[in-house]
Design goal:
With 282 residues, the chain is an all-alpha fold. The protein is built from 13 helices and two strands; from the N terminus they run ββααααααααααααα. The protein has helices at 24-27, 30-33, 46-75, 79-103, 108-112, 127-136, 151-161, 166-176, 183-186, 201-209, 215-246, 258-264, 272-275; strands at residues 3-4, 7-8. A two-stranded antiparallel ribbon has the order 1-2. A hairpin with a 2-residue loop joins β1 (3-4) and β2 (7-8). The chain is globular.
Length: 282
Amino acid sequence: MTIEDGVRAIEGGIATDFTARMDYAGYLSLDTLLSAQHPISDHHDEPLFIIAHQTTELWLKLALHELRAVRAHLDGDDVRRARKGLSRVKHVFRTLTDQWSVLATLTPSEYSEFRGVLGNASGFQSHQYRAVEFVLGNKNERMLKVFASRPDVHGMLAELLDSPTVYDAFLSFLARRGHPIPQHVLDRDVRTAWVEDASLLPVFTAVYEDTTTHWAEYAMCEDLVDLEDAVQLWRFRHLRTVQRTIGFTTGTGGSSGVDFLKRALDLTFFPELYTVRTHIGA
């Protein structure tokens, strides 16, 4: 590297002619990506609102991609790759949690000046968030009607509704490893939301009280707890951002807003992995 007249020279090996070669913008489809923001108002802060939610959807797309793979890896007894996928999704949600701090710079006065243009558009209608909830175990068939006008989305969610969750795959993995998972758990209706089952507590207690023998199972349990914690922190940060921006106003989609988000904090994907902590060493 040389500097001439205070300007760093371009290294000789760096490509500069992209007439017939793919470049960075082409690979990432930046022309499409960067032209996908269409503010309805002329308010300075509306692009912030749009970009924050669009980037959230991109991260949710990756989370769903990884969670589908985690489920497949567990079905194939590949713990190493399943754990790697869970770790990646955990960090996705940590990034999403940090991202709320950018949107929180939008003050109530600023948001109120363009909130009306949103109509009934709401994050409640995010099909990718709903898909992540489904694959993690919070299933609700009634949610499908929200997407009735979009057959492709409706079909994708219906497929996930009919499919085992990540937790179902993990419990089946434990059964194949010789753990006494009750048959009614393995045969459960996967279309229903997961409800805590006390019959699993002896299984998890045995795993946690002998981590040397059951290291792979123990590590997976802790990975799942890490993921749930990350999702819950994201939910909580969402709630606090909404509360500081619109208070207790009704949401644009018609929900009760903050109260609706508070109730979401009571939802849990892997309840036995928290309850078991009361039983360890008892």
